Amino acid sequence: MEYSPMKVKLITAPIIEPITVAEMASHLRIDDYDTFASNMTPYTCTAAGSHIVTTGYTLYGTAVDVLGKKALVYIRPVNNGTGGTVDCKIQESDDSTTWTDWTGGSFTQITESTDTTTQEKEYTGTKRYIRTASKILVAACEFGTDVFVSDSSINEYDYLVSIIKAARRNTEDITRRQLITATWEYYLDRFPRCEDYITVPFGNLQSITSIKYKDCDWASVADDITMVEGTDYIVELNGEGCGRIVLPYGMTWPSDILYTSNPITIKFVCGYGTTTDTIPEEVKAAMKLIATDLYINPEGQIVQNGITTYLTNKTVMALLSSLVLREEF
Q1: What is the CATH number assigned to the segment(s) 36-150?
Q2: What is the pLDDT of residues 103-156, one digit of tens each?
């Protein structure tokens, strides 16, 4: 986002892209540029062996990174103890820490009569990590779970990743927005002279992490002065528009003589969300058009209003026009 002289720093980058490599490959009609079998990598989720009775779904498999890839989850039963049953389901996570059940990810219960039948499910969710969670009742049962991940050919896969990233950055430049959730620091040289608010860049403000400033006696971070939300300022999220930091009634901005270099730091989190389904369809469509032009004509680019864009028609601008932030920041 290099469209203005404002001073910002990306602290925590997005964890995913708004469109996946599989989606881009499908859009380009190159889904078959690799076969699943030739690029399939198996990962052990729950090690095969005898597993004792559990209380609930507490036998967790090892997390597997499947971001932007095709994945099949296998459960391979071997032998159930007398009366024993195994229930198994797929769970998903953005960060490999907080897990939720993936809708449609439950396998058919394994009983003594079905303990030689292998089951499989293709994961079609949008999270970065998946694992299995299993419940064993009545008696110990022997089984294991595996995740088979299709890694596309390195050159083609990496190239698709790079053009998706370029398309996302170009879309962010055009709209002046942060798409996938990220954390930024915004640096100001002074507090407003007349306004009772500060506009926060990039839209879709989720939270203000902190507002700190340095006075003229500042020597180290220990001297940072931290403003208190609710007392020194109020946060307006303002939906898809630009959020604002607003003075409470009767309050004024600090009048200290400020430090000479980046005296005010506003740390904030913004973006539509951490999953692809939070991104407007217009954004995804525009990104695919930009990425397609990069894929077909990698040397082609044009400049509009000082912004380098990778497109050959007006459709991208039409798709994104209603999402462009007009506020000054």
Answers
A1: 2.60.120
A2: 999 999 999 999 888 899 999 998 999 999 999 999 999 999 999 887 655 457
Whether pLDDT at 35 is above 60: no
pTM given for the model: 0.64
DSSP structural state of residue 233: B
Residue 38 pLDDT = 53
Domain boundaries, the chain: 36-150, 182-270
Q: Please report which residue ranges of the chain form alpha helices under DSSP H.
A: 21-27, 154-175, 281-296, 315-320
Torsions phi, psi of 296, nearest 5?
A: -80, -40
**Helix, strand, coil % in the chain, rounded to nearest 5:** 20, 35, 45
Model confidence at 308, pLDDT cuts 50, 70, 90, reads: low
Q: Are 262 and 7 in contact (CB under 8 A)?
A: yes
Distance of CA 253 to the CA centre of its chain: 35
DSSP state of 279: S
Distance CA 139, CA 79 (A): 11
Count of helices and strands (H, E) across the chain: 4, 19
On whether the CB atoms of residues 105 and 42 are closer than 8 A, the answer is no
Question: What is the spatial distance between Cα 84 and Cα 82, in angstroms, rounded to a whole number?
Answer: 5
33, 81 Cβ separation under 8 angstroms = no
Look-up: residue for tokens 């864009």? 309
Residue 4 has pLDDT above 50, yes or no: no
| Contact by Cβ (8 Å): 150, 37 | no
